[in-house]
Amino acid sequence: MYDALAPMTTDALDRGVAWLARAGLRPTRQRQTLAALLVGDGCDRHVTAESLFAATLETGEKVSLATVYNTLRAFCDVGLMQEVTVDGARSYFDTRIDDHPHFFWEDTAELTDAPSEGLNIVSLPKAPDGTEVSRVDVVIRLRRIS
Predict the structure, then answer these.
(1) Which CDD domains match (predicted)?
(2) What fold is seen in the domain 10-92?
C-alpha cells in the first residue's frame, strides 16, 4: 500500500546517519533506525507515521507511535523531508524535498510523485499583508475507472 521501506543493513544505517548529519541532527538510536528505513537504499519514498511505525516494529526497535510522529516532524523542521497533507486527517511524509506534484490514489490511499510536465501554475492570489507564499502543494486525486 505504501512505498516499501529500505531494508535494515549496515549500508542503510550508514546512509541514514549521513542523512541526519547533513541536517545537524544528533543520531539517536531511534533516529538512526527511522532514517535507515527512510533513505537507507537511496530511494525517495512517501510514508505515513503509521506505516513507518509498523516497519520499525519489524526491525525489533522499541519506539512509540508518538516518537515516530515527533521524529518525522523534526525531520521536516530541518528540511530533510516535507509533509504533504492529503486531507485534514491524513499526512504523508516525503523524502523528496524539491517542489513537485503528487498523485493521491483514492482506492489505495497511496501517495506517489506525479510528473511535473504539463503542470503550469500561472498565478496565485496575492498573499495577505504581512505574509508570503512559502510553498504550493499540488495533490491530484485519482479514482480508477472500470
Answers:
(1) Fur_like
(2) Arc Repressor Mutant, subunit A (1.10.10)
Q: How far is CA 58 from CA 34, 67, 130, 137, in A?
A: 12, 16, 47, 32
Pairing of strands 102-105, 110-113: antiparallel
Residue 98 exposed, middle or buried by CB count within 10 Å (0-12, 13-18, 19+): exposed
Tell me the per-residue pLDDT of 105-136, one tens digit each, with 9 for 90 and over.
999 999 999 999 989 999 999 999 999 998 88
In this prediction, residues 34-45 reach a mean pLDDT of 92
Query: Nearest-CA neighbor of 43 among 70, 65, 11?
Result: 11
Cβ burial, residue 36 (10 Å; 0-12/13-18/19+):
buried
| pLDDT tier, 2 (very low <50, low <70, confident <90, very high otherwise) | very low
Domain ranges of the chain: 10-92
